[in-house]
Amino acid sequence: MGPVHLSDSRGAVVRRLVAMLREAKSRGAEMVVFPELALTTFFPRYWMEEAEAQARFFEAQMPNTDVQPLFDAARELGVGFYLGYAELAEDGRPYNTAVLVNRKGEISGKYRKIHLPGHMEHKPEAPFQHLEKKYFDVGNLGFRVFESEAVKYGMCLCNDRRWPETYRVMALQSAEVVMLGYNTPSLNIHWNEPVHLRTTTHLVSLQANAYQNGIWVAAAAKCGSEDGHHMIGSSVIVAPTGEIVARTLTQEDEVICVSADLSLGEHFRQHVFNFAKHRRPEHYRLIVDRVGAGDPLP
Ligand code: CDV
């Protein structure tokens, strides 16, 4: 998905999403993955009060009047979708959220982002902010797997894709496809990271984790330059072999499509990554007992 600028209305964004859903349908798609925070610009780059952010960029209901046309199109076309958005929950808590919508246009799964990157404090010296830790609470729904229309879907969001724990927890629930949306700025505000590494580390995370868990991974970026802030593209679909089987070419709205053989992952899950046969959890205790390297054991 190309950029969404501050001046773009939700209605205009949803029209773009519906157009992509229709194109995907015309190419045989049954499930479509849209990006993280797809309805708005990537607002955590801007410093503001939480109340202002919530009033401008969060959804208190899903679907709501602005987004309803996307749900209607899903039902009309018989195509499901994954959509990332900023959620203001019923209890008033803010989350970076993704929903799974089935081919009848019904919400059949929800994920709230767990690995929130960035910082809480204002960094006036930085070229832009990354305030996910200020605007969002840590997700409270875990990494669940949802069976929808005979496919087992896992969901995560952006920075989650860099953590092997994300995929393994879902693979242990027999996920077949992990869907994720992301917004990755081309510049790293924390260190002088070469720009090409932003794409390299994105791809290596997806490819390694697809292979090591025998799963398909479908990753959709919001990309291009949002009001002068450039984000990497490279939305991809990765097979359980670890191979990239489709990749975007542009930094605009663009649909990539794959006919995914879900049984492909079985070869890996029955042999090299037969978890029941080969995993040794008694030697993995530190993964849950210790948070940071060198921390005291609890
Ligand atoms: N939106 C994100 O979670 N972005 C993170 C980084 C760049 C802060 C990412 O892992 O892409």
Give the overall shape, derived from the CA principal axes: globular
Can you say what the CATH homologous superfamily is?
A: Carbon-nitrogen hydrolase
Output mean pLDDT. Answer: 98
Distance between the termini: 44 Å
The total beta strand count reads 12
Which consecutive residue ranges, at least 5 long each, have pLDDT under 50?
none
Strand order of the largest sheet: 5-6-7-8-11-12
CATH architecture identity:
4-Layer Sandwich
In total, the number of domains comes to 1
Biggest sheet record: 6 strands, mixed
Q: According to CATH, what is the topology? A: Nitrilase/N-carbamoyl-D-aminoacid amidohydrolase
What are the distinct ligands in this entry? 3-methyl-2-ureido-butyric acid
| Highest-level CATH class | Alpha Beta
Helix content: 25-40%
Topology of this structure?
Blueprint lengths: L9 H17 L4 E3 L16 H8 L10 H10 L2 E9 L5 E8 L5 E6 L19 H4 L9 E4 L2 E7 L6 H8 L5 E6 L12 H19 L2 E6 L2 E3 L2 E3 L4 E3 L5 E4 L16 H7 L4 H4 L6 H5 L9
Parallel strand pairs: 1-2, 6-7, 7-8
Antiparallel strand pairs: 2-3, 3-4, 5-6, 8-11, 9-10, 11-12
Helix pairs in contact: 1-3, 5-6
The site of 3-methyl-2-ureido-butyric acid has 11 residues, from loops.
